[in-house]
Design a protein that fits this description.
About 85% of the residues lie in helices and about 0% in strands. The chain starts with a helix and ends in a 5-residue tail after the last helix. The longest helix is centred in the N-terminal third of the chain and has 39 residues, at about 5-40. It has one domain (about 5-155). The chain is mostly helical.
């Protein structure tokens, strides 16, 4: 593999890792609906209140999303540790990764860099799964069963004009 192709592959893996960090951020914003908005409004919010709440969540950094989540619900220590680790890993990727890997790039250590990025991506994915496991009982309590989620997903796909294959 030539250097250009190797760097493209590294960038693809970097993008995937950052994407999964954003999936986690979105997961926290979704969790906040169930641990904060619904209980605070007794499930009676307007579409505008929901949109505003969601938009404000996405204005926050990952660290502030985690702080907000911790301030409105009791979170198991293991999940807190995963979330804090995710915050640190995401910050490293965003602010230091390529600078810190310059020497490895010059030594053509592409496989090691790709392996590191894939490991980070898997970590974000696993943390998001743990978060979903934490919030799932609340979702079900509020009527968001798997069946309801499938209906909502189908409605969303119809709304955006997507088809499932």
């Amino acid at each position: 593999m030539d250097n250009g192709e190797a760097f493209k592959e590294i960038c693809a893996h970097y993008g995937a890792a950052m994407y999964f960090a954003q999936v986690l951020e979105h997961g926290i914003a979704n969790a906040l609906i169930f641990v904060d908005l619904i209980p605070r409004t007794n499930g009676k919010w307007t579409p505008e209140e929901y949109d505003t709440y969601f938009e404000r969540s996405f204005e926050k950094t990952l660290g502030n999303l985690i702080k907000h989540l911790k301030s409105v619900t009791d979170i198991p220590d293991t999940l807190i540790a995963l979330l804090e680790d995710s915050k640190n890993k995401r910050a490293f990727l965003a602010h230091h990764f390529f600078r810190e890997r310059t020497d490895a790039l010059h030594r053509h250590e592409y496989d090691e860099i790709i392996q590191e990025l894939e490991s980070t991506r898997l970590f974000f994915e696993a943390t998001d799964k743990e978060l979903q496991n934490f919030v799932e009982p609340l979702m079900q309590r509020y009527g968001f069963t798997d069946e309801e989620m499938e209906k909502a997903l189908a409605g969303y796909k119809e709304h955006i004009g997507a088809t499932s294959n």
